[in-house]
Amino acid sequence: MLNEQLLLLITTPLYIIIIGAEIILSNLHLKKYYTLKDTLMNMYLCILNGSIDLLFRAVYLVILIAFYNFHIISFTFNPVLYWFLLFIFEDLAFYFEHRVDHYCRFFWAVHVTHHSSEEFNLTTGFRSSVLQPLYRFIYFIPLVLLGFKPLDIVFMYSLTQIYGILVHTQYINKMPRWFEAFFVSPAHHRVHHASNIRYLDRNMGMVLIIWDKIFGTFQEEVEEDPVKYGLTKQLENPYHFTNIIFHEWKNISHDLHKKIPFFLKLKYLIMPPGWSHDGSTKTARQLRKELFESEKMILRSTSRESGN
After folding, report:
1. SS3 208
2. pLDDT tens, residue by residue, 254-293
3. What letter would DSSP give residue 263?
């Protein structure tokens, strides 16, 4: 806990300085990356998320400690290796948590708040998935079984979150090629926050982009397809204090009240966002397939015309 308090003392002035600088620069350059309403909403969601995390922390730490009693590896012989491996495995755990949040509608209903802004700036990194602390610890259970201490895991998560916040910027175009080969860059994360069909459910990593490249969720930012931020369907009352958190739960409730078999109702909870039993709405994968097929047809048509 002391380590986290130290992180807070260090990062708070850092955030104030860089966010202030981005606000000033964006206004000077007439970029309008910030609006007061959206920034206040980001802070509101961050405070709610942090409050739930603090209130629930004792519970999930007790659970993680209980599992730690059955750990299979001891790293006391090499602390450097311990912290390095903790970073690697914690980042991998986050990738899978993040992927589930995008591919299972039940968890997307929690995570969607982070993607609901049509702006993208450093305060967007604070636009937290409010209820996520209630289940995030589940992804840490394999880590404690491997021999990583619960408090160290929580500290490492807080540490990597600092990086995760800093990539929410439009002021850095591209990082060096070697950097973007291994690490999440602002360009990578802009793709993640895009509502363009090409970019949906892509670039899930927190610090390392290698997981996306290994597991097939990587997408470069394409110059011909400029990023549009926000959701595929614009929210009603985007600044309503409760609607911003629970709007997707309302949509799920509507789908669960359809007169269809229980098995299909269950699918509205566990299948990816956009899934429908009658094809009236489509998942990101289905939309992307249609987009790529359309692009191929256009390319073939253009090729034939140029051949003539």
Report:
1. strand
2. 999 999 999 999 999 999 999 999 999 999 999 999 999 9
3. H
